[in-house]
Design brief:
Strand content: under 5%
CATH class: Mainly Alpha
Number of domains: 1
Distance between the termini: 27 Å
Oligomer: single chain
Length: 138
């Protein structure tokens, strides 16, 4: 799917253009926070749910516990925080544009996923009202 191609292209671009010698405290904190959110999300989700494409598996289960109590897409939050940490090491205009493309892509990808989840799980709309998409309470 095009969302995945854009997502991974943007991630690889930001990794390739990061200047690791410019890592500072903010970049380090963002990267650590990204790793924590990603690991917590992996621990909370059912491994059978893990899928890089925006599609539901036959036995997909809606996870609403742990970090998913507060954030509907913590894996995307993790990706954005990690890429922001990389961007802060090299803030050229092209890197900023690629970061913006990544954010828009993840927003559109999450919209697509949420439509699928709403069709499969009738209580998903209530879950949406109680949680933030990428950040708690937003």
């Amino acid at each position: 799917m095009i969302y995945v191609v854009i997502q991974f292209s943007a991630i690889f671009f930001l990794i390739a253009n990061a200047q690791l010698d410019n890592f500072n405290l903010i970049s380090t904190v963002l990267l650590i926070l990204s790793l924590l959110i990603g690991l917590i999300a992996l621990a909370n989700m059912k491994i059978s749910n893990l899928n890089i494409t925006p599609a539901l598996k036959k036995d997909h289960q809606l996870v609403t516990v742990g970090i998913y109590t507060y954030i509907r897409h913590p894996m995307y939050t993790s990706v954005m925080l990690a890429c922001l940490a990389l961007l802060l090491t090299n803030t050229t205009l092209i890197n900023q544009i690629v970061m913006l493309i990544l954010i828009v892509d993840l927003f559109l990808k999450s919209n697509f996923e949420e439509k699928l989840l709403s069709k499969r799980f009738h209580h998903y709309k209530n879950y949406q009202k109680k949680t933030g998409r990428f950040l708690p309470f937003i």
